[in-house]
Every structure is written in C-alpha cells, then in structure tokens.
Amino acid sequence: MQVEGPYFKVMMELSNIKRVYLVGIGGIGMSGLARYFHQLGCVVCGYDKTSTDLTDSLHNEGICIIFEDEPAEIQISFRQPDDSTLVIYTPAIPKDSAILNFFTGKGFTLHKRSQVLGLISASKYTIAVAGTHGKTTTSSMIAHILKDSGTDCSAFLGGISSNYQSNVLFGKNDIVVVEADEYDRSFLTLHPDIAVVTSMDADHLDIYGDHSHLTESFTLFASQIKQGGQLINKQGLPLANGTTYTINGEADAVAENIRVENGNFYFDFKNNSVSISNICLGIAGLHNIENAVAAIEVALRLNVSGEAIKSALESFRGVKRRFEYIVKIDKHIFIDDYAHHPEELRAAISSVKTLYPDKKLTTIFQPHLYTRTRDFADGFAEVLDMSDELLMLDIYPARELPIDGVNSELILSKMKLWNKRKCGKQEAIQIIENEKPELLLTVGAGDIDQLVQPLKKVLENVG
C-alpha cells in the first residue's frame, strides 16, 4: 500500500482536489473529512461495510456511499477516478479489501485521515486535543466556546456535537480545533499552536505493545508544537513545560468549590491571573469539569472573556454518547456513554452515583476489542463492581479476531458483585422491560448504541 508522509507531494495544493473517495467513510473521523470536502464543493463518495445513522446522514447531505466491497460500484457511482482524486482510507479496513486494491492497482497513493488532517491544519492556527480519554468532549467544548463567544473556528471532532448536530464545524477565520487521535500514532501528523493532553493511560496496547511506548508517542506529540506555541496538560502527566490543570488540587489552573445543585454541576475556575466564579456546566460529570478547565485555559489564550466562557459552558450540550441523557423523568434516569476503557468507566459510573446517590444503578456494558479486554480485565472488573447490577454483553470485536480464553466471562469471573449476568442484546431489553430500573447506564464503544432507542421506548412507556 502506497502511503507517504503528512505533506505528501500529490496534495501540496488543496485547491487541486476535485474528487474525494473515502474507504471507511462511516467512521466518525472519516465522515468529518467527507463533510469538509463536500462543503468545499468536491465530488465526495465512499465505501463502508454497513449502513448506520451516520452514513444515512451523509447520504442525505448528498454524499454517495456504497456498501459492497466491489470496484465496479465505484465506477457506477464515482465514474473513473483521475488525477484530481484524493483517496483516503482508515486502517480499520482490511488490507485485502477489493476497493483498496483497486485504487493501489490504478497507481493511487492512499492517505490516512490523519495525514489529510495534518495538511488541512498546517496553514491554520491549530488547537489539537489529545488523550486516551476526554479528547472528544474537551475539543467540542473548546469549539463551542469559540463559536458561542463570536471568536469563531472550524473544528474536526471525534463525535457528534449536540449543539451543532455535526462532527465538523466551519468557521470564517484560520482557527481550527482538531481531535488528535493517538491510535496508530495518527496525531504525529499534527503540528499545533496549542496542544492539550487530557490523559495518557495505557490503551491501544495492540499497537504500542506497552505503556512506555504510548507515553513516548505523547511526548513526541507535545514536542511538535509550533515555535511559540503552548502545551496544556492534566496535572501529573509525565510531560515537561506545560500549563497543568486539575480539579480540587494543586496545578496552574484548577476547578474548586465543585457542587451539585438541582441536578447541575457548578464550580469556580482559578489560574494565576484569572478567576471565574459560579460556572454552571451544561453537562454532568466530575470528569467533564476537568475537561472544562482545559477548555477554559485554551479560550483565555484566545482572549475570550470570562463572562463569555461562563455563558458558553452553561449552554454546552455535550457530545452524542458522552454521558448523554436518554431518559430523564421522575421515575427513570437512563444515561448512555461511549466509555470503553476502565478509567472512562470509572468516570462515568462515579458521576452517575454522585448525581443519584440514593438510586440503584443498573449498568449494561459491552467490552470493545479482545486485546483491550485481555489487557484490562482486572481493571474492568474492579470498576464494574461499583454498579448495583450488571448486564454483560459479548465482546465487540471491531477489527480483531478472537483470542483464546478472552471473552466477557473473563471479566465476570474477576468481579465481586453478585448481581451480574451475561446476556444478549434482545435479552437485555427484556430484562430492562421486566425490571424497569430507576437508574440505567449503557456503556461501550461497539454497537451497544443499537440498544438506546429500544431501551428508551421501554422506560418512557412505563406507567
């Protein structure tokens, strides 16, 4: 497969690109690029394995998508690719894909999403948010503050912003906010003016091998900040010369006086020169207050006023599947979250229990990837034990083949919680219909989102 560096010769001029084909267009990052080039007036088409709500949205916006790995389908929908065609692919697509091999056979150089994002952002004032978790919400917060305050920006987000119902935003200036993905070392194509690092927990060990190699990549990312640029990182991370932030602790920027009033989180912000009191955060969760501190630090560097920041954070509605309220009525609370790493689960479950300390928590969890389940089975078991009841789904394999002895039962066997069981999706719906839990949390990064609407219907129809 022909792949070049981030500033590849064929793409030195974005204006030369008239046609774009995305192999794996249904991914959240790939779909953002599809929308970006479509907005520029390019002919945009793509392939993905299955139809989803996201691919349906792209289709409704005028982007052609096929779902059969057949090169003949390309020529029907896209005509014959030519020199003005940019081909972008995701590493999640198998190397034996007929469509990938069609393009390489025609002599096209295939480009990863991160390479294209690196080129798009190279000439702009770039704010890049990295981290093994927290990056999607933090980058969305930063983008919303800049939009809401009138500063403006463009943004490439790793989730669907609830304020804008999109994962890509278009601005009228040269500021761009990008989510910097550590998977496959993708973020090393970026050279930001401001870099934010939210977390560096062990993850993607199928790529990195061990935590030290992941830490090395984050250090490299931080070293690629443009001359005169700035690093903002969570307190305690092994990064040098950054502005540190935390909640209820010692750092350059802190959130303190954190409290819950009428179901809303409030806090005060303070750094070495600015104080903002009584901030109401439009979404729930202690981890989201921490994300907000990082977002405030970025906004202050772009001369956004404290009052404008405060107003924007109150109107921030979060990101789809990031601590998203699905049902919020007197008898039942149902929250859905993308959490798929033990520390993300800890943040989600802790926040739910902080908000609703007197309610029994039922959690439905779908493990994501065999390697992640193998590497963090003990951590998953410890965190899931914080629930009062657990329904465990099968592992969502994504790009991976099974590993002997690695399954959902591995986590269950390590748990101390007695009220736990393995079940399928339809069985989970039936259990919820029978038990009608007062507090329900669904968590996972696979296809567990397919349960959201059926479970919502069940709980909303309870008399």
TrEMBL record:
InterPro entries given in the database record: Mur-like_cat_sf (IPR036565), Mur_ligase_C (IPR004101), Mur_ligase_C_dom_sf (IPR036615), Mur_ligase_cen (IPR013221), Mur_ligase_N (IPR000713), MurCDEF_pg_biosynth (IPR050061), UDP-N-AcMur_Ala_ligase_MurC (IPR005758)
Entry keyword set: ATP-binding, Cell cycle, Cell division, Cell shape, Cell wall biogenesis/degradation, Cytoplasm, Ligase, Membrane, Nucleotide-binding, Peptidoglycan synthesis, Transmembrane, Transmembrane helix
Entry-linked PANTHER family: UDP-N-ACETYLMURAMATE--L-ALANINE LIGASE, UDP-N-ACETYLMURAMATE--L-ALANINE LIGASE-RELATED
Location within or outside the cell: Cytoplasm
Function: Cell wall formation.
NCBIfam families per UniProt: murC
HAMAP family xref list: MurC
Enzyme class, first EC level, given as a word: ligase
Membership in a protein family: Belongs to the MurCDEF family.
Binding site for ATP: 131-137
Occurrences of domain Mur ligase N-terminal catalytic (ranges): 20-125
Example of a GO MF term: ligase activity
Domain of life where this protein originates: Bacteria
One Pfam family from the record: Mur_ligase
Domain annotation Mur ligase C-terminal: ranges: 321-430
EC number assigned by the record: 6.3.2.8
Full protein name: UDP-N-acetylmuramate--L-alanine ligase
Reaction(s) catalysed (UniProt annotation): UDP-N-acetyl-alpha-D-muramate + L-alanine + ATP = UDP-N-acetyl-alpha-D-muramoyl-L-alanine + ADP + phosphate + H(+)
Domain Mur ligase central: 129-299
